[in-house]
């Protein structure tokens, strides 16, 4: 096997790295609340994913793998929670429509109209600067550094604005989950993505 | 939400924000934080959920945006004209955000020149109390340098010296003190911070603060102290009433190295204090009243330390 990194397709390098990092990655998944079995599953899924996805050269491959797994862990938990919620609904004899399975996963979820309205209302209460920074970050997709540079404020000030905005978003989320659409559920947090 | 929940959520948001930044590379730190308490992962999940719940109406989390942030032209006179703003899917959230932003024009003129930091220094032996717009009071000991921000009374950076902070608490906008690459975030608080070239000492008299450096995040409650020298962080305790006692003209010590005592005396009186090398390991416990003229204080210190304190051209010399 040649050791010329450049000749090697990016994928196989990544695959090798993912194998070498397995213990570390498994530990991360466990910390992210995955069971032993789920962690194994996800690592396998990761391996396949990087084998079948074409990427350009990756500057920080280690971080890239963590990032993918982080998203996968999140998606898996959401899927699991939705499944449990559906089961709970069945037990509570309250049927979902046939299209329940077609509910989008959170990565592509269209926020419900109600929630969006609540977000709007809550963000309108934020200090103007905070709302502006949040918009630049979350809507326009600028990096914190770019925002700090442009506004001539410190990175930590940008972070503070975003902290505040996200807290507001969390508050809305909590309220929605508590007064959500699924009265039978004890855990809450399943009312999203239902139109 | 309880205070600790608040803290955990703040941390979760901070991690979420950092994780989505381009070039984030502190996964080990993130894992340590997750492993510290199962509640951390739940809080992080809640934040991710909330963010994902904003949906695709908003742009994906930032990672590739290297183009400059573009402002509405009206906001600042010297802004470049909007250079081909990046096309994003227009959505309700964006439209909403634009509305929110437009409301702001009146009060945001000159936003581009917002960096309004300024420096306050005290001479050796000079103390000074600053009152910030939010009700926070900062007592500066001698030989102290601090940066403040006219626009943001919740920010301070201690460059050197010692200061006691009595912080007006606002959970939504915590007071943040930066010292080099360390951060101290108040949780409703009176605390004292001393920066020497080698170390940082934080003592909490009331309430609590959060201490953060690259590796460590730690909560200090009333009576807790922390001394950080390089990567070495040592926790301890101290009677809360003794903390920042220099503001009342007293120095209170419990087993403090004489080097520290000498440094404090120098700062308080604006004199040079030399310590004989063979005394470097000695410690002192007790209270030193700072009032009186130079000779009175010198004799008092000599008695308390049971050492010789002699005058030099620019201060004192302490020896056996």
TrEMBL record, chain A:
The keyword Transcription is annotated on this UniProt entry: yes
GO biological process: DNA-templated transcription initiation
Keyword Transcription: yes
Location of the RNA polymerase sigma factor 70 region 4 type domain: 117-168
Similarity annotation: Belongs to the sigma-70 factor family. ECF subfamily.
SUPFAM superfamilies (alphabetical): Sigma2 domain of RNA polymerase sigma factors, Sigma3 and sigma4 domains of RNA polymerase sigma factors
One of the record's GO molecular function terms: sigma factor activity
This protein's UniProt keywords: Sigma factor, Transcription, Transcription regulation
Source organism per UniProt: Novosphingobium fluoreni
InterPro entries: RNA_pol_sigma-70-like, RNA_pol_sigma-70_dom, RNA_pol_sigma70_r2, RNA_pol_sigma70_r4_t2, RNA_pol_sigma_r2, RNA_pol_sigma_r3/r4-like, WH-like_DNA-bd_sf
Xref: PANTHER family: RNA POLYMERASE ECF-TYPE SIGMA FACTO, RNA POLYMERASE SIGMA FACTOR FECI-RELATED
Protein name, entry field: RNA polymerase sigma-70 factor (ECF subfamily)
Domain of life: Bacteria
Domain RNA polymerase sigma-70 region: 21-82
Lineage, opening ranks: Bacteria, Pseudomonadati, Pseudomonadota, Alphaproteobacteria, Sphingomonadales
């Amino acid at each position: 096997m040649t050791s010329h990194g450049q000749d090697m397709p990016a994928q196989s390098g990544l695959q090798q790295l993912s194998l070498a990092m397995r213990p570390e990655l498994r530990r991360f998944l466990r910390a992210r609340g995955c069971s032993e079995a789920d962690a194994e599953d996800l690592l396998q899924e990761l391996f396949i994913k990087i084998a079948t996805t074409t990427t350009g050269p990756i500057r920080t491959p280690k971080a890239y793998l963590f990032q993918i797994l982080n998203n996968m862990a999140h998606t898996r938990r959401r899927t699991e929670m939705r499944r449990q919620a559906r089961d709970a609904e069945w037990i509570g004899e309250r049927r979902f429509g046939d299209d329940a399975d077609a509910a989008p996963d959170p990565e592509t979820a269209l926020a419900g109209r109600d929630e969006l309205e609540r977000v709007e209302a809550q963000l309108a209460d934020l200090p103007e600067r905070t709302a502006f920074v949040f918009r630049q970050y979350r809507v326009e997709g600028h990096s914190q550094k770019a925002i700090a540079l442009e506004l001539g404020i410190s990175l930590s000030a940008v972070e503070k604005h975003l902290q505040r905005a996200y807290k507001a978003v969390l508050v809305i989320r909590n309220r929605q989950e508590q007064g959500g659409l699924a009265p039978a559920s004890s855990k809450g947090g399943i009312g999203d993505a239902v139109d | 939400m309880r205070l600790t929940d608040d803290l955990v959520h703040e941390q979760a948001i901070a991690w979420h924000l950092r994780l989505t930044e381009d070039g984030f590379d502190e996964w080990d730190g993130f894992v340590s934080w997750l492993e510290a308490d199962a509640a951390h992962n739940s809080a992080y999940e809640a934040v991710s959920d909330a963010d994902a719940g904003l949906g695709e109406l908003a742009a994906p989390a930032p990672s590739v945006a290297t183009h400059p942030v573009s402002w509405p032209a009206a906001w600042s006179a010297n802004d470049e004209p909007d250079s081909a703003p990046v096309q994003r899917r227009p959505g309700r959230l964006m439209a909403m955000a634009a509305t929110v932003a437009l409301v702001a024009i009146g009060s945001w003129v000159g936003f581009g020149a917002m960096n309004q930091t300024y420096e306050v220094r005290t001479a050796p032996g000079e103390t000074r109390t600053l009152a910030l717009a939010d009700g926070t009071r900062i007592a500066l000991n001698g030989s102290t340098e601090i940066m403040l921000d006219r626009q943001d009374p919740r920010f301070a950076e201690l460059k050197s010296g010692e200061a006691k902070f009595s912080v007006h608490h606002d959970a939504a906008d915590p007071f943040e003190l930066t010292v080099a690459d360390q951060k101290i975030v108040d949780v409703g608080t009176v605390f004292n911070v001393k920066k020497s070239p080698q170390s940082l000492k934080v003592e909490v008299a009331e309430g609590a603060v959060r201490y953060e450096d690259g590796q460590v995040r730690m909560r200090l409650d009333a009576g807790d102290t922390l001394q950080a020298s390089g990567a070495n962080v040592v926790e301890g305790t101290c009677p809360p009433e003794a903390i920042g006692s220099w503001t009342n003209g007293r120095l209170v010590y419990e087993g403090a190295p004489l080097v520290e005592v000498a440094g404090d005396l120098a700062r308080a009186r604006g004199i040079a204090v030399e310590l004989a090398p063979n005394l470097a390991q000695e410690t002192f416990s007790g209270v030193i009243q700072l009032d009186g003229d130079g000779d009175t204080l010198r004799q008092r210190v000599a008695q308390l330390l049971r050492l010789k304190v002699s005058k030099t051209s620019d201060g004192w010399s302490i020896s056996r």
